[in-house]
Amino acid sequence: MVSRTRPDIGFVPTPADAIAAMVKLAALTPDDVVYDLGCGDGRLLIRAALDYGVHGVGIDVDEALLKQAQADAERAGVGDRLSFHQGNLFEADLHEATVVFIYLLPHLNLRLRPRLLAQLRPGSRVVTHMFDMGDWPPDLVLPLEPSAEDSVIYLWHIPQKTAPDKAGAV
After folding, report:
1. Residue 14 binned pLDDT confidence (cut-offs 50, 70, 90)
2. Residues in CB range of 141: below 8 A, 6 or more apart
3. Which of 26, 47, 145, 170 is most buried per CB count within 10 Å?
4. Pairing of strands 33-37, 140-143
């Protein structure tokens, strides 16, 4: 059962130019499994499935937006490749993801960062719109110009895991 908690952020649709840039920057292939954390109406996943043939999972707390996302995916002909789940994105199991899309506020990105680093396989990509991950330097920063939103897209690759030394430090 999903708890009825208030979302950490209200739904703010990702602009169309940012969606196009995010899916391109992620270098998607049909083998990718894409997660959209805070997916809202699902437009980003639908575009990724249409343009690149990916499978995807959207997670959001808003039941009405998730119903809209699933209906829109069905209408677009990609409903069999996308699933939308109501839940807390900070509790989501991300192990299957090869790409994670995020459009959240900076403090929420920072809360997610340890989960991304712990659960995603090395080489998996994280793409955010507008906000970075604090002191984790991105591999690429793409300002979208001209853009009414002054949008910026960030890309990270999950690094190789390092073994702890004998003292237990990583």
Report:
1. confident
2. 152, 153, 154, 155
3. 26
4. unpaired
Peptide bond into 137 cis (omega under 30): no
Instruction: Pick the closest to residue 22 from 135, 151, 145 (CA basis).
Output: 151
Contact 38, 60 (CB under 8 A): yes
Burial-class residue 135 by CB neighbours within 10 Å (0-12, 13-18, 19+). Answer: exposed
pLDDT of residue 166: 57
Contact 115, 91 (CB under 8 A): no
pLDDT in tens, 23-45: 999 999 999 999 999 999 999 99
- Please, what are the domains in the chain? 16-148 (3.40.50.150)
How many CB atoms lie under 10 A from the CB of residue 10?
8
CA 102, 106, 109, 111: dihedral to nearest 10 degrees?
Answer: -150
> How many Cα atoms within 13 Å fall on the side-chain side of residue 26?
35
Strands in 152-157's sheet, in edge-to-edge order, are 82-86, 55-60, 33-37, 99-102, 125-129, 152-157, 140-143
CA gap 100, 35 in Å, rounded: 5
